[in-house]
Design brief:
heterodimer, A: 6-stranded mixed beta sheet, 48% strand, B: 7-stranded mixed beta sheet, 4-stranded antiparallel beta sheet, 11 strands
Amino acid sequence: SSELTQDPAVSVALGQTVRITCQGDSLRSYYANWYQQKPGQAPVNVIYGKNNRPSGTPDRFSGSSSGNTASLTITGAQAEDEADYYCGSRDSSGYHVFGTGTKVTVL
Amino acid sequence: QVQLQQWGAGLLKPSETLSLTCAVYGGSLSGYYWNWIRQPPGKGLEWIGDSNQSGSTNYNPSLKSRVTISVDTSKNQFSLKLSSLTAADTAVYYCARGWVRGVLDAFDIWGQGTMVTVSS
């Protein structure tokens, strides 16, 4: 079972801002990464290490962290941002672990 | 541009062994960790394990007794074997490149995924 908890689903109006959270005790020790997965596709890394964007990630995506919670914010959500989002980090033993996932719907 | 291309059997019977291979094109195995990650239908991602170029491995404790990840540097490939399959192992299996820089790490390149179904 995942040690990183996410809200199952959130919705956002086109052009508005949405924040997705990821909670887990290990986030006090390790950074969270964020992955976007569209139906039938492999995940894509959109944020790593709290708030770093790989090349190709639009600057409307940003990350933050406080205590045991990491967050991914989409500022000015676009239709193409509709996807499942997973946080990824380490568990208390240092092994890789993913969050439970959040489905983002853009209205 | 580095690409990962994976392949392997898609339909297996209970108790059989899953075998998947992932080829790395456009880059070297050196300096990275080579991962297998799976996703049951309609569910989330689960990390299976990784290996570096030298063959040093780490496995998810929940799967460790059944998993072997190996690297073939001559072919620029890495492989996954998962034994004693049950229906619970039905999933899309992904290979992925992992990098580590100090306290930062991520999976930056993924294969296309292989659907593996375990059914009698």
